[in-house]
């Protein structure tokens, strides 16, 4: 059974930090590119950061560049998102996503709330 389980969300003041984790199981994690998405209330889903299968290639939304860092550990089947200098506009549900060719999987999401 494929599972992507996010953790690490919570409530933080503006300027604070959080580290999100995504634990994968049920598929060959190292074969899949991974992405963090987020959806804020009343807004469309937004790609936050992505990472290639080996971790060498990363990409970020302009809104988070220089503040967020995506990483993965293929030995542990995990992916992380270090979020620093958080802003109220980062408030959203954050989702872990795995994709390869025509196949993709989603986690259930974790809430991040940043107060001003």
Task: Write up what this structure looks like.
By secondary structure, the protein is mainly beta. The protein is built from no helices and eleven strands. Strands 2, 4, 5, 6, 9, 10 and 11 form a seven-stranded mixed beta sheet that branches. Strands 1-3-8-7 form a four-stranded antiparallel beta sheet, with no helix packed on it. The chain is globular, with a radius of gyration of 13 Å.
**Basic shape:** globular
Q: Roughly what fraction of the amino acids lie in strands?
A: over 45%
Summing up helix and strand content along with how strands pair, one would put the structural category as mainly beta
Describe the largest sheet: 7 strands, mixed
Q: What's the tally of helices?
A: 0
